[in-house]
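Friendly challenge for the regulars: who can give me the structure tokens for this chain first? No prize, just bragging rights.
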Amino acid sequence: MDAGDPSPLRHFVVAKRSITSTFDQLLEFVKDGSAFVDEAWRSDDLAQVVLEEQRLEMQSCATKLSAIRDVVLRRHMKVAFFGRTSNGKSTVINAMLRDRVLPSGIGHTTNCFLRVEGTDGDEAFLTTEASGDRRSVSVRRARWFQREFRCLDEWDAHLPPPPPPQTVNQLAHALHMDPTLDAGSLVKVFWPKSRCALLRDDLVLMDSPGTDVTQELDSWIDKFCLDADVFVLVGNAESTLMNTEKLFFHKVSERISKPNIFVLHNRWDASVSEPEYIEEVRRQHLERCVSFLAEELKVVGLEEAAGRIFFVSAREVLSSRMQRAQGMPETGGALAEGFHERLREFQMFERTFEEFISQSAVKTKFEQHTVRAWQIAEAIKAVMDAINIASADKKIFCLEEREDQRDRLDFVRGQINRLSNNVKERIRSLTDDTAAKVATALSDQIRSLPVLVDEFRADFSSTQETLERYKTKLLQHVEERIVSGLAHRCSVAVLRDIRDAQKHMIDSVRPLLSQSVQDQLTSPSASFELTYDLGLAALCADFRENIEFQFSLGWTALVTRFIGVANAKRALSSSDPRLQDNSTFKDEMLVSIATGLISVTSRASMTVLVIGGVVCRSVGWRVIAVSLSLYGLLYLYEKLTWTNASRERVLKQQFVEHAARRLRAVVPVSSSACGQQVCKELSSTFNRLTQRVDLSEAELEGNIRQLSFRIQRLENIQRRSKAFRNRATELETQLETFSLRYLQGH
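First reply, four minutes later:
Bragging rights claimed.
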């Protein structure tokens, strides 16, 4: 094959680049999808939208894809060369590499497995299984290395000289027999891609010891052959296929389904010495190899088997190619007759081998991973579909719940407004009823004042100090009895009405409250008591008793009996400047009436005197004397009977009249105050209930906001899950395109 021809191996390189790009996109997509699913799973408000199994599935997909991508990046086309010792396996590889890279020669040369692959650097190096240190491949480089370090004057004599680099021949040549390497060891040779076009396209060549030097064929297969795309059986054209070679490939066929095998009959240049048997020998080798591939191994059909068998001389090809690389003619040197035909056969092998391994490696290396990637994409689509459906169902539920919450909020607001009007009307009615009841009861208590005062008992004396104590106790007694009477008549009924009204409020408000607020709802306090603050001591602060002796037929008594106590004082005070100064009356009309009565009374007295004189003349002085005696006796009797009991009785009468007058004046105020107490109690109860309703409204509004936010989150989940599903479909399309282009039809 001409080095300048386009290599069929590029097919594998392009396919690898394409599938790697797809896997990069798929891995990035799966990582984003896994982060999205994990975020949704960790959201408390999105419970049951993403399940734990789905989250773990996405993480598993990401892990699997990452591993597959790493494997794909390490994938390369691998061809393994096997055959008996000294059949020219290493020479074939060197001829393909166009340089003496691997140890070759007569006898047993290759002591271990040698893996040749390209490196982007300019220096060739090798590594072993035991050590990853790079070692020089070039013998010329090794000698220069030793020479340079020996001539350095400034080298520190105290330091040991650096170890000389080891070459492939030093490590892998059987004649050296490195004790650290055995037939099952591996040496990796990294050859610059710039020096070999064959290695530029991810091709790895595996050289092996002879199949006849060990019995550990099974371990060879397990360790070096399971990932090989093509096997090249290098035979010796001077002999036929041996049982050791057949046994090895029978074992390979047992481990690998239909391995791809090429057969090279090397050293075909030896046939030139017997030209008369060339065709017969060629036909003999061909028939036996076709029978081995098609009938024994059954890895290929009879019509295809011949295309897998080639007759070459690797030594001639290597020599001609190295001469050409040095600018010398290809045919220079000792080349046997028919070299060009054998060179074309070798080039045909290379071309056929490259075309076959490129197509076969793409299928064997990438088909399984492509199917697995497609399965992962399908699994991701299933997860995203499930999330989309779950979020849609959850969204519908949230929309319905939000609508219910809004209806509930509107209902609560409407009901509380109507209830407020009804409660205010009922409070107003109870306030008026309470005021009316208290007014009626207080009026009745005022009418029963004489009885209340009369039943009062206390030490009485006309001294000023005793009188003050007596009046104070009397005021306390009367107020206590009036208050107890009002409580007996009003409090029980009013408190019952208040409890009924409060119960009605609670029963009306309770359906408007949320369950959490209902649990906090408590019964109204039972400590309310209706108070009757009459302030009798203040009302009667101006009470002034008059317990001085007054004759019942005296002038003052008669005037008082005729025009009343108040008017009598006013009228009598008109002749006394001191009384006029101390007068508290403001009404001039009453003054004029009282003065008129006095003047009338004065004229009547004169008339009585005149009439008395006439009567005296008519009846005689005896009758007058008797009358005066009776008048005097009556005065004397009343004077003698004017005791503390009489004084107490008069004081009580005067107090009853004064207190009754004052209490009648405050009946509206006191009854209204009791009504306001009821109004305040009921209003405070309803205010507390409306505060609970406000809490329920705030809770409903908060629920609506949370539901709206949750609906937005669910819509975002739906949108992103659809986007991820569409992206998975696009990646599946890329995988299908790759499969149609590289995996099918070949």
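The first helix runs from residue 10 to 42. The chain is about 65% helix and 5% strand. Your move, everyone else.
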